[in-house]
Description:
The protein is α/β, with parallel strands linked by helices. Helix content is 44%, strand content 15%.
Amino acid sequence: MVSTQGRKRLVIGNWKMHGSLGANAALLCAVADGAKGLPETGVAVCAPFPYLAQCRELLAGSPVAWGAQDVSAHLQGAYTGEVAAPMLAEFGCGYVLVGHSERRAYHGETDALVVAKAARVLEAGLTPVICMGETLAQREAGETEAVVGAQLDVALDLLHADQLAKVMLAYEPVWAIGTGKTATSEQAQAVHAFLRGRVDARNAAAAKTMPILYGGSVKPGNAAELFAMQDIDGGLIGGASLAAADFLVICGA
Ligand code: PEP
């Protein structure tokens, strides 16, 4: 599960708001079975909250971890509809996505809120995957580094050094998510190297070990090229994580 750079290699499926008990059972069993043949890669799935129990049951004893797609920035209280990080921890989750572009776009999540959520996840002993990325308009305006740099800086400012060492990042250009358009491996590597350099400027130890995943229309046909890049430590996979065969090919890449 460790790259030649000594960093954890991981592929996480983001099911988004898809699934049913029947379809999930088939998918989870196939992924659990296939992942046994992939000892080099950590594999995880992030499922909608109601299906976490099913993940826990069907993935028990398998090499596949599971996680949630969001979390509350609060620990407990009158926050109807929210789910707290200690609840996810009690349940056995390993990972929690925070700041996915769909949360930022449809729920108005700010960088500060995203990092507050990451802090709750860390306090609960889980691993946050902090998602960041630019829109097409921002890329075309030459603002990619300014945008992702600003998103990252809030985490660098608000998290302690020991917390940063436990964070994962996911670079997900918004224009590549669910669109079928993927960043070229060179475009993705350039942003990953930029992000790692920015972490390095504040915390060299964390920069060396921090996994930075790429997400955005990763498919069986493009995963190997992306994952071969020096600063790309794996992927966050949306659509293709819903088909076990595709997801396993990506995990094997
Ligand atoms: C995602 O939802 O994080 C994602 C990367 O989606 P897709 O792979 O479908 O582009």
